[in-house]
Amino acid sequence: MQACGLDFGTSNTAAALPDGTVLSLQPHTSEPRLFRSVMFFPDDEREIYTGADAINRYMEDNTGRFIQSVKSFLHSNSFRATQVKGRTFTIEDLVAILLRRVREAAGAHMGGLPEAVILGRPAVFTPDKDADALAQKRLHRAAELAGFQHIEFLIEPIAAALAYEAQLTRDELVLVADFGAGTTDLTLMRLGPSRRGVKDRRPDVVGSTGVRIGGDRFDAEIMRHKLLPRFGAGSTYRVRGLSDKRLPMPQHVMAKLLSWHEMSFIREKSTQDLLDTMLETSDKKLEIEALHDLVMDNLGYRLFRAIEAAKVRLSRDEVATVDFEEARINLHEPITRAEFEAFSKPLLDELEQCTVGLLSRHPEAANIDAVFLTGGSSQIPAVRQLYVNRFGEERVRTADAFTSVAEGLGRASAAFG
Fold this sequence. Notes:
Nucleotidyltransferase, domain 5; five-stranded mixed beta sheet; 24% strand
């Protein structure tokens, strides 16, 4: 029976073989092992584009529906389906579209489509137990719709731990921190040669926890503190028929701008009417023009790519610039690492509290041998420094930030044997 591991992520998806080899899913892209978890439904054709093809097609002509971060909604009972060009897609349908394409790409390396899969899942989709169970149920159904016949789940930080374990020459007690786009998961686990290859690793897990902080939240802080004023935050406008009454920019509009997968939800007639009124009467006309084009031209994804690029540069440089020129938007906003760390402090504090909480619940944590950091936000200097401050530089280790979970899931899939 053909089996693989599959890391379905908020931003990227990756797949790996039972020997841990992470597969090239889109060989003609700059990151062939990462399949972007996005899809695009053009207005003028029936084809559904996914991954890098979806991004390229969307960039050519954004007249259509661009859908991303579907994983973020798996736990939400209020998001059951969406309409695209008169067709109804449940959330399971949308996830299945992505999983099916990844399964087909993996099958090209395996001599046939995999029938069995170990799927990663966060330690905690959400603190609400019913909503957490709903998220896993939906992900399981999506995998069935994608054609998988045998489906098992593994917590993502445990999968990352298995990838780290492959290089160990002695047994260790390890704190694994997996920083995804939507969540951060922490697991305290016994790893090493004496445990490698054991099918049931649950007894080796000392404890685990998670928090809904990921790369998207750090991007949102850049938007909140540096860019919202460039899109009308703090402006006022006059209501038609009430010549003397001025109203502040509605907070719900600004709130939606903090997340690129939420921004599409304000592309509706009521928002368009509001923006038209603001264009006529706002005290910050240029900023409202930029807001209008950002929302109505569906430029949110492109803007957040520019924000993410600046965030990545801040991991190696002291200063970066958010550069974005589209329609009537002309942004060249500098940001220093010190600024970024200052307005990210609430997130850093929450990460630290989550970590301390896990450690305090388990006395064994006093004997941690190593801390293994993986995922995109593990590259943020302030995030790494949290763990260096507590455990010392010599105990903090990193690996491939984006494929460790997939590698571990692949190794776990060997159990299907």
